[in-house]
Amino acid sequence: MSTIREITSLPNWEHHVTSLPPSTLLVVSFHAPWAAPCAQMATVLSTLASEYPVTEPPSTSWVSINAEDLSDISETYNVTAVPFLVLIRNGQVLETVSGSSAVKVRNAIEAHAAKVGAPVLNGAATATDGHEGEVATEEDPEKKKEELFKRLGDLVKAAPVMLFMKGTPSEPKCGFSRQLVAILRENAVKYGFFNILADDEVRQGLKEFADWPTYPQLWVDGKLVGGLDIVKEELSNDADFFKA
Ligand SMILES: N[C@@H](CCC(=O)N[C@@H](CS)C(=O)NCC(=O)O)C(=O)O
């Protein structure tokens, strides 16, 4: 289970890059502390990283960089907006993804990294150097809502099964979320998760987007199944609900 490491200085970055074998895919996430979509992207990336096992030599290496503090590095990679993802192997930039689309980020990483026990998408990702999903600077509330809903539309598809919960699977912060995590574990379901306590915009926005007022929320293939009660009901009607 890979984790994301924060690069804190230029020497730290140089040491990290030069210590990697040529075959390792280096996943670099540029962020800024003031940009809420970066907090969301951090969660998306740590969920993704956790799906990649730690191997020797490492098949993937995951780092994040404060784009403003380490401007020498962000300038090297032409980071003009955050979040901004750069995929590097053997010193070569393979692909960049500008913006907060969880789907584009997942596709790009899956296209370049082999996950043990998972199919590798061949050429599924395309270069995405457009400006979609960037941080809105305007205060137009309609535009902000449109952007939020676009992010949420991507986020609910960040994994085939997505759990929006309070806390994390290892540390649920609410009994309902804890119960749903236990159900998923009992049914050996692989899932991505999002801690809605870490992002109030997502917490409030998803209620409206989903037309569902509470958490946990379970989404399968980008469609809302429901909360804990609905999942329990589905399983009591069909014990193989998650196997279909
Ligand atoms: N019966 C609900 C229980 C979930 C629930 O009531 N959640 C509350 C308390 S944890 C909630 O999310 N409230 C809205 C919020 O906290 O934003 C289910 O089946 O999921």
Structure description:
The protein has 244 residues and is of the alpha/beta class. The chain has helices at residues 10-19, 36-50, 71-76, 102-112, 141-155, 175-186, 200-210, 228-237; strands at 4-7, 25-31, 60-66, 84-89, 92-98, 161-165, 167-168, 171-172, 192-195, 217-220, 223-226. Helix 5 packs across helix 7 (200-210). Residues 166, 174, 176, 203, 214-216, 227-229 line the site of glutathione. Glutathione (GSH) binds next to helix 8.
Secondary structure: number of strands: 11
Sheet/helix structural class: alpha/beta
**What coarse outline follows from CA principal-axis ratios?**
globular
Bound molecules: glutathione
Low-confidence stretches: 116-138
Total of helices: 8
Kindly, what is the distance between the CA atoms of the first and last residues, rounded to a whole number of angstroms? 27 Å
Strand order of the largest sheet: 1-3-2-4-5
Radius of gyration: 18 Å
Q: What is the helix fraction of residues, given as a range?
A: 25-40%
Order of helical and strand elements: EHEHEHEEHHEEEHEHEEH
On the 0-100 scale, what is the average pLDDT? 85
**Sheet of most strands:** 5 strands, mixed
**Proportion of residues in β-strands:** 15-25%
